[in-house]
Amino acid sequence: MTATQSKPAAAGETRTLTLIQAITEAMHEELARDERVVVFGEDVGARGGVFLATAGLQASFGKHRVFDTPLSEASIVGAAVGMAVRGMRPIAEIQFADYMGPGFDQIISQAAKIRYRSGGQFTAPLVIRTPSGGGVKGGHHHSQSPESYFAHTPGLKVVMPSTPYDAKGLLKAAVRGGDPVIYFEPKRLYRAAKGEVPAGDYTVEIGKGAVRREGSDLTLIGYGGVMPDVERAAQALAAEGVQAEVIDLRSLVPWDRELVLESVSKTGRAVLVSEAPRTANFMGEVAYVIQEQLFDGLLSPVMQVAGFDTPYPYVQDKVYLPGPNRIAAACVQALNY
Q1: Cα 261 to chain center, whole Å?
Q2: What mean pLDDT do residues 25-36 have?
Q3: Each residue of 292-324: pLDDT tens digit?
Q4: Are 264 and 270 in contact (CB under 8 A)?
Q5: Nearest CA to 185 among 30, 46, 54?
Q6: How far apart are CA 96 and CA 93, in angstroms?
Q7: pLDDT for 217 beyond 90
Q8: Cα dihedral sign, 258-263-268-272
Q9: Residue 197: CA count within 13 A, CB half-sphere
Q10: Is 209 in contact with 251 (CB distance < 8 Å)?
């Protein structure tokens, strides 16, 4: 327990945390707040997880509430579903998002559908945390961005924060909600993203985006690990006299259509950024809604900057990921259309 956790927080008190520290703190506070909360997964106990996101939790709350599991994602998710249906609030960790495949049926056929299949008699309020995305040279099996699979599944909520403030607030909201939540953690931001986080209790509403930078010439939209590069691209454009409005979706299901449409109706141009492969990318849905609702007011086609339709490369992160240069180039294309 940190010093800030061991005493009541002063009104308005904040601390500078990394993204992973904010995630750890959220779990610590939820374990302390609600005895129904349990945390489990591969190596999450004594070791604290492969990225140490759960470090210290077992020492604070015991092996009956923070514990290791076998190397079986299907079992991890299946246990989480069973616990949630029986009234608990499980937080299950899948060690890497790439490993969610073995638990896929449990997620989409059980967790996502139990409320509907039972006519509302049962629910599965669980959280599946998983490190996602590239930027750490993890290669084909440790760098994928599979959020579109889960965004396509009715009954699931899907979130991906990019700041410590959002990471803590969204995770606490997910634990307290009534639905299964897939909580993607952009691993390249674990220790790179730092920000002020309130010491007191708070949540961030799932389904609401955030304006990171106001502008009038075009709208840049992203989420998760790409957000630092999106903001760098906006800064570079500002140096050339172009004011880009930057929106962080934070939540993919549901996503903040009202915020996006309000911004794009003002600027007339939209550039959508994510690191998942281009084909069937979630941002394609955002692009469709923009053109469906704002077609007559658009000044250029909606542009998308994404990863490539290949397995994630081992050593070519900077080529695969949509960095500031690729983002800015798409913005220039939209401006010159």
Answers
A1: 21
A2: 98
A3: 999 999 999 999 999 999 888 766 778 889 999
A4: yes
A5: 54
A6: 9
A7: yes
A8: negative
A9: 28
A10: yes
SS (H, E, C) 73-120: HHHHHHHHHHHHHCCCEEEEECCCHHHHHHHHHHHHHHHCCHHHHCCC
Annotated catalytic residue, options 64, 140, 141, 142: 142
What integer is the mean pLDDT of 128-151?
90
Residue 149 neighbours by CB under 8 Å, 6+ apart: 104
The reply to whether the predicted model has a pTM over 0.85 is yes
- Whose CA is closest to 204, among 12, 22, 5? 22
Q: Tell me what pLDDT residue 228 has.
A: 97
What mean pLDDT do residues 280-298 have?
97
Q: Which domains does the chain have, with CATH numbers?
A: 14-198 (3.40.50.970), 210-335 (3.40.50.920)
Sheet holding 218-222, edge to edge: 210-213, 244-248, 218-222, 270-277, 303-307
Average pLDDT over residues 106-120: 96
CA-to-CA distance for 315 and 30, rounded, in angstroms? 38
Give ∠ CA 276-282-283 in degrees, rounded to 5: 95
User: Is there a catalytic annotation at residue 28?
Assistant: no
Nearest to 227 by CA among 179, 180, 160, 171: 160
Single-letter amino acid code for the residue at 98: D
For residues 53 and 185, what is the distance between their CA atoms, to the nearest angstrom? Answer: 10
Look up residue 169 and give its two tokens.
Answer: 């607030």
Tell me the Cα Rg of the chain: 20
**Residue 52: exposure state from Cβ atoms within 10 A (0-12, 13-18, ≥19):** middle
